[in-house]
Amino acid sequence: MNKMITRNYFYKSIVKISLLVSLTISNYAAAEEQASISFGALSNSIKAEHRLTIAKESSTASIVDQQSGKATGKTRTELHKIKQLESNRLSKELKKPSLAQNKSYNNPAYTDFAIYGATTLLQDDYDSDGFYQTFSVTFDADIVSYTSHPWDEVYALLYISKNGGPWTHYYTTDNFLIEGDTDSDEYEVITTFLSGYSTNQYDILIDLYQEGYGDVVASYSSDDSNALYALPLESADYDEPYIEVVEISHGGSFSVAIIMLFLLMYLVRTKANEN
Questions:
Q1: Which of 172, 162, 159, 141 is nearest to 206 (CA)?
Q2: Each residue's pLDDT tens digit, 35-69
């Protein structure tokens, strides 16, 4: 009878330990899921103090880009195919109202777009290891051909590549207006990586789309500018400041390690007695 009780206790203890291991693995997997929060607007509307506020609010955001659909994590090739399908469907429907009143779209067959340049800014390195969790990408999209309309409505998809790996989608901007080749319509995206981005070098790529048209009209990447090349980034779960913990031992108390050791010895002894 005692052996039966001991055997049941032993198996229950093993089950409890297995559950703890499973929970630990599950929590680790959840922590590895990519999550980010981004803010995009015309660059001239974002002041230096705004960047600090945006980054601070991003750390406590309740809805991340992956939940809102702003970031899909899909590869560039996958999204190109999806955009083509969407374009075919939209061509059979009425166009949505645009940002400009009485606006008629430039014909993409006769309009040339370009991204003139891009800059990046790194922010928030709490563990001081040279890798940042918040960064911004600013780019200047232009119309570089003569058209009857010197402005157009566009949006951009931003991709990231870890250490030369595949381009994966991390943000889609809202629609915004560009006018000719002026730089007053520069667009800026401020992103904070919350989880799932390991400490590494990351490249950035920007695909520009004309609203209502399914093909990329201009691209700009780390191949065009070093500003988008090898950015030292990591998500917040990798960017925790080091805090030295001093353990103070009190008389008559046992550390967790000692308690676990005694538990293990007990289980082994119980198993031996059973045999």
A1: 159
A2: 999 999 999 999 888 888 887 787 777 899 999 99
